[in-house]
Write a structure and sequence with these properties.
Arc Repressor Mutant, subunit A; mainly alpha; Tscrpt_reg_PadR_N (chains A, B); Metal_resp_DNA-bind_regulator (chains A, B); homodimer; about 120 residues; PadR family transcriptional regulator (chains A, B); 3-stranded antiparallel β-sheet; WH_DNA-bd_sf (chains A, B); DNA-binding
DNA sequence: TACCGGTACATAGCAACACTGAATACCAAA
DNA sequence: TTTGGTATTCAGTGTTGCTATGTACCGGTA
């Protein structure tokens, strides 16, 4: 992965992904990056996650607590607040709206396609 | 809709949407815009579509034919070529990868949440 | 004729976002 | 001391969709 397509597709969705992760439980940047990697997003740069966290903090979607770490500099633990949960709900609505229409296009335009295409194989 | 979230989410997906439309049959810009509106994307600006068409043409994903119109200036009819079909397949792969993980997050993090209606809504 | 509205395309300037690459800081083990 | 894992930050870049505007073609109408 790590394609340009993925990079562009993550715009707008990565924020929702992180909010959803934080909805499960508070977390700090380094941890979120690691969790994203575990979930298959191997190519998301650390700097991207930190910049995103700064943004959602400035927009008041999360509360922040500085917690000392045994292994390095202090962690900034982010937790979703009420405004963040509202934003997350909005995200799911927007996502569902878009996903429904795209899936419909997928079905429609994949219909003439079967297993192996005969014409113009590539 | 027309939210800022939707604007960001369309980045990276709108191109795929248009490619999918063109996979069905050739079309020109004004027509594509109209079709998008029919499919619920009421807020997509005309200029956005035209700019996108310029881009995918320059990247060699489509062939173009100028066709006279009875009602206005000549139409630029775009048709998906082999390279465009390859790009569309890539798009579906990237989309599926992303959609699967986001849907999983949706299931996971929507579990403790309860909105107005019961959670077993569907 | 002059004007309006629908059709059809194009573009300059802007805002938002993810990525690259580098720097900083803390600590433990080699 | 140096290496490596932990943890955060930031300047600069490229891509994208939106706004706003302009151009062009045509039929109908006052």
């Amino acid at each position: 992965m790590g394609s340009k397509q993925m990079t562009e597709m993550l715009k707008g969705t990565l924020e929702g992904i992180v909010l959803a992760i934080l909805a499960g439980q508070p977390a700090y940047g380094y941890e979120i990056t690691a969790r994203l990697r575990d979930q298959g997003f191997a190519e998301i740069a650390e700097g991207t996650v930190y910049a995103l966290l700064v943004r959602i903090e400035q927009r008041g979607l999360v509360d922040v607590a500085k917690v000392p770490s045994e292994k390095g500099p202090p962690r900034k633990v982010y937790s979703l607040n009420a405004q963040g949960r509202t934003e997350l709900e909005e995200f799911w609505k927007t996502w569902s709206f878009l996903a429904e229409r795209i899936e419909q296009l997928h079905r429609t335009d994949a219909a003439p396609q079967d297993t192996a295409t005969t014409e113009a194989g590539e």
